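Task: sequence in, structure out. Protein: ParA family protein.
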Amino acid sequence: MSVIALVSAKSSAVTVSALALALSAPKRTLLAECDPAGGTIRAGYLQGHSTAAVGLHQLATAERSGTLADAFDQHLVPLDGTAGHRLLLPGLTDPTQAPALAGTWDQLVRMWPVLEGEGFDVVIDAGRLLVDGGELNASRFPAPLLRRADVVLLVLRQNLTQVVAAAPAVAALRRDLGLHGTGADALGLLLVSDQKSPNSSDISRHLGVGVLAQFDRDEATALALTHGPTGRGLTARAPLLRQARSSWEQINALATRRQVQLSPGGQASVYRSVQQAVTRG
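Result:
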């Protein structure tokens, strides 16, 4: 099982990238829409075919009543027509609901081993980083999900403005993952082509982070992922989905390497340790 979290320093196609990865993943996949600014997949890609009766905000209520484990599966909806192989945990319908999730993020981590037993990978759309005084704002941002992810992908467009904006975010992420997470080596870059200047090697060198995925401009597919497919819909041959599919090899290679380094028993034992720590806390 791999848990991959996507974030950005500025608004830069995190949801589209997360959707592309989830729809092209080699295994069964859950896309968890955990952006505190609110989810867009329900109204966009799913074109309103999922009601507000299910989703992340309902799990916050279940967590407070101690029934999250029982309610979790009830709030997952199909992301495509592949017999439950691609599922979505819909995000918030209202950003003002975000503070109510402060105690929910750690409890969501406890659900990952259940998904592992069912053969799922997890892709987390964490939205835009919230950084205060050089530190992640864990009270308003799902920092616990990043801290227990196998790989954290910082999504940025390939232009100088985004690279400059990413530098303090990289520093905050490195510090937080090193102090509170499984290590700063979880961090990688997902570049979305824009001006292609500076080039990927220069960006990686400047930020001190390796590039794990690079998506070229594909406006037609990005539009379909944002607002929902039309006509014949999306196909596996769409350029963005092809690139996302090929990116999984390198992403999973890092995830597997880190799992081995973290624990001889693999990621499941790491999650068990986290569960025990949460329970003791």
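Residues 154 and 189 are 5 Å apart (CA to CA).
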